[in-house]
């Protein structure tokens, strides 16, 4: 099957215009079919503050009331997404910005209220992988904002790591998929204080050991859980690397490659 | 050739959630290929005010400095566009939200500074009508925000009436095109104070007479200029009607139809 690379960039890259341009320049040179999933960054929090909308985080997740949903729709779906798309267009990369609502590609349901009411937060229930493939087949490069939609017509805020993993998993019916989580570190580190201690290959057993030892910290755990879940579900390769080292990581000389 | 209906809705519909839902419900039931161009509405002005960005209008056009460009990118490209798309999805209309940057469909250039510097305002230079047709052919309904992009990578604010007219004109190479401007009046009125005085058919000579008589007011002139220009350029039908009367206007029993 045709290879497809699914890349995810997070807030640390988005918040730094120089780092973002550097990443997008690398992204535009990658060979073959690819798509990008981006997170939010601090702009949403800043816009919310100026608009008088209070930001509440629980366990690193944003509580999304109606006012905050409007803010993330503006910032993720409008500002961040369209700035990435227009930068990529100038780099001769035919990007098309999408939320889950566009062409109905990613349906979700509002997360049920248990002990915490996350508000307008979506858990993915269906991805139209055929439609996504039709974009790549027609030489477009989908750029996803972390927004899905429910059959009620509500847009829903969805974690970008989870979204990238879910898209990668659904695309295995059409492509040999590589999933790359790009962030501000050089990979999974054996010693969190030493950027040169990148673990080249990580198995589930080693991951368990690192969790026990406390080497893998809180923010990395949901990322690695998503990453190993994608690998178990049939994604061919999962890589965690620095946003500046994507080509090297894809050729196996940088970052952390997960193995089963 | 296959018929295509290009509809434009403006701020008055967008600012009124009930009117917008009523329009989108009608829009979703229209037969055949169609696409929607939406304007901005007062939300952008309101968001700008809360963010401390000053709104300057000259001759009814917004002056778009960098801060205002970010606001319209958020509001037009994010909030308004995605709310329309998600409402249409629920109505079983497979909408896809687009700015000119997405898939590179509408290139523009920053308007040259003469006596007035409009800032980040775009004059359209190229429309990829083949790409737009490929969306409709794959059963998607493009929903355009009034944003284009320049080869510098800048998004540009573009008047929605002009955008709708330009798209309609470029689509004549692929479709028999009908262009419909929907607004809050029942059509072009012979007497501006009398909603029952709709002019059923309007020729350029009659338009000239109404301008001389002052019956056609300031805001209507650029709209009608765009409309007649589209007709002269090969658009089959141009209609101006109330947003609630689109089906009747398309069947010839409401609104104003322009003729040459």
TrEMBL record, chains A, B:
Substrate binds at residues 40-41, 62, 157. One of its GO terms (cellular component) is cytoplasm. Keywords: Amino-acid biosynthesis, Arginine biosynthesis, ATP-binding, Cytoplasm, Kinase, Nucleotide-binding, Transferase. One of its GO terms (molecular function) is acetylglutamate kinase activity. Its EC number is 2.7.2.8. The record marks 8, 223 as: Transition state stabilizer. Pfam families: AA_kinase (PF00696). Gene3D superfamilies: Acetylglutamate kinase-like. One of its GO terms (biological process) is L-arginine biosynthetic process via ornithine. Residues 4-241 form the Aspartate/glutamate/uridylate kinase domain. Pathway: Amino-acid biosynthesis; L-arginine biosynthesis; N(2)-acetyl-L-ornithine from L-glutamate: step 2/4. It is found in: Cytoplasm. It catalyses: N-acetyl-L-glutamate + ATP = N-acetyl-L-glutamyl 5-phosphate + ADP. The keyword Secreted does not apply. Belongs to the acetylglutamate kinase family. ArgB subfamily. Catalyzes the ATP-dependent phosphorylation of N-acetyl-L-glutamate. NCBIfam families: argB. HAMAP family: ArgB (MF_00082). This is Acetylglutamate kinase. The gene is argB.
